Protein 1
Amino acid sequence: MVTNRKEKEQRREEILAAALDRFAAKGLHATTITEIARTAGISQGLLYHYFRSKEELFTALIGDALVKMNQAASGLESLPVPPDEKIRIAIVELLKTLHEETFSRTVMLIAQANLSEGTPEEAKEVLRRESGEPYAVIARIMAAGQKEGSIFDQESPDVLSMLFWTTIKGLAMQRVTNRESFKVPHPESLLRLFIRR
Amino acid sequence: MVTNRKEKEQRREEILAAALDRFAAKGLHATTITEIARTAGISQGLLYHYFRSKEELFTALIGDALVKMNQAASGLESLPVPPDEKIRIAIVELLKTLHEETFSRTVMLIAQANLSEGTPEEAKEVLRRESGEPYAVIARIMAAGQKEGSIFDQESPDVLSMLFWTTIKGLAMQRVTNRESFKVPHPESLLRLFIRR
DNA sequence: GTCTATATCCAGATAGAC
DNA sequence: GTCTATCTGGATATAGAC
């Protein structure tokens, strides 16, 4: 039973975790409220005590995910190291987190949400507002690296940033859909895309 | 009105194209039969004259897509050029087809179907049977290239093949979700991942 | 706060007229 | 072959007991 405020908050988190699990596996529309409730170990009716609708649940998850991504991105940008080293660190860290179930699921969730049609309007709104930053951060780092000569310069910073993120996204999807057989590449292999040699 | 056999076949194709359009944009479950019918310009009831169910439609699309992919893959393998050149050609061609709406949609469709939960069982069956080949083809080419020294050899052929396809998949998704702003990278940029230098 | 039972709605699928 | 009208099932959301 959940009575005080802290426990209520915790139950909310449990529901969110269950929802992330199911949404990442099946997508928004294929996932039923009943299934989320079952995963969270509660009755279907109770879920409505914590969230008004399935869409609100989805939107909350998207919001959380983007906040975390933006924090990570701005943390990266403020590191006191040269641009190419920032990219190296970013790749190392992202490949590490690929092992964590939660991270891969979050990437999937955002990827799905970006298939804008069929995504709740409020979720799209959040995406529009917040999702540009990680791209912009990497693009700025790439630009700085090109200026000082450490980053590959036959491609614009924008395109490099897009390549960076699409590669990570592709790997995360692979990770989610092929849990058993998935092998993480070495950071150095991916770095070859961006570092000038 | 559709009377003879050829016209019937054509109408089937129209419905398949409409379904691919909608499934790629919204996914299997978020897409309604009504919507597909409207996109194809026919009534909802008529669709059942051509396909038994939404799932059959989906499975047919997956089947078509995999057949085409496998044809392309085996065509690539039999080209009379060295391995690194095969990879080059594959990248050039794939980046070209990225411009075609249909190709990107097809990639999306397969990516979605791979989120196995929520995918119809027959579609999963087809995927299991047929989807390994493109990976295997690229892995074999990578292995041959490593043997003769033209391909990057600090990563196994399997991982290189996975990197190859996840990169393409990531770009296709980007293409579908950001039609307006999407810029295709130069083939040489991607080649850097695989070619030994 | 939590559950069970139920109302409501909507999409998939069918039937039948033309 | 094609359409409109209808049946049916399942999922969201609500109501009400505990």
Protein 2
Amino acid sequence: MLPLDDYVPYLLNRAGARIAVSFSEAVRPMGVTLPMWRALAALTDRDGQTVGELSSRTSIEISTLSRVLDGLQRRKLVERKRAEDDARVVTLRLTPAGRTMVRRVMPIAERYERVAIAGLSSRDVATLKRLLRALYANMDGLAPRP
Amino acid sequence: MLPLDDYVPYLLNRAGARIAVSFSEAVRPMGVTLPMWRALAALTDRDGQTVGELSSRTSIEISTLSRVLDGLQRRKLVERKRAEDDARVVTLRLTPAGRTMVRRVMPIAERYERVAIAGLSSRDVATLKRLLRALYANMDGLAPRP
DNA sequence: GGCATATATTTGCATTTGCAAATATATGCC
DNA sequence: GGCATATATTTGCAAATGCAAATATATGCC
């Protein structure tokens, strides 16, 4: 039997959790949480996503995301608007303040990326990203059925 | 600026969270949660650890772990005992029922390991483990100061 | 057009979490 | 030995989470 710290799922969660805790602490002074940052970053990638799209993209559970959006909206970083073509969906847009916040937090995110991969060759980094995507995809079939 | 899904911290959390959710679901019928399983597995590696040791080893926050242990003790899978030499610490031991539970859950854990790394060469798996350990170590300096 | 069914989002509620305070014991110093 | 300080664990409490139910809107069929 493998010791706990030879299991990929454990190693993965352990590393992920540590980075998450550390990054959260770093951005707290700016008044954003990690899920908030994920939402802001994903909206920077593509503005005007719906709540459902953003949920898939960020892997934030949709009811949790709804409340994260409450916070972002209250702080006027994000705008919610019922879509014109399909009023079941709500589209999300960064406000100018939201974009400013992204510009302020981005350097921290980049610093954490750099710290995380410090000492790894760029080849290693490429491999790591590839493997993490593969792992995620591998779990597709086993995810809770909708 | 990188899109969200090129950031290592994001890829890491995403993959880790998906495996965690899926595994949790798989072991729920046996009445164990993921943190419970981690504790049981770590105690299988080495019996008689203290609560603090187990907390570091599993990366479960110590007050959370204390409550996880409440559950494991209530279900008679783990025994708590004040250490004889230093009565500040509590040592933890698997009961026979605890060992039985480990034997029952182990195949599921092994299946998840296999599914996670499906399609990866054994070289890739070795690389992945090495990189995940490196990442974890890299965050050492940035972790919240004690 | 009106009703039944489908999809998207939010809200209610119970559970889990983590920090900080409380408790228990140990060690060092007088 | 007794008190001050240090270490280990548990408990109180508030915040975050996820599931399921409630709400809002759409679509298909008659």
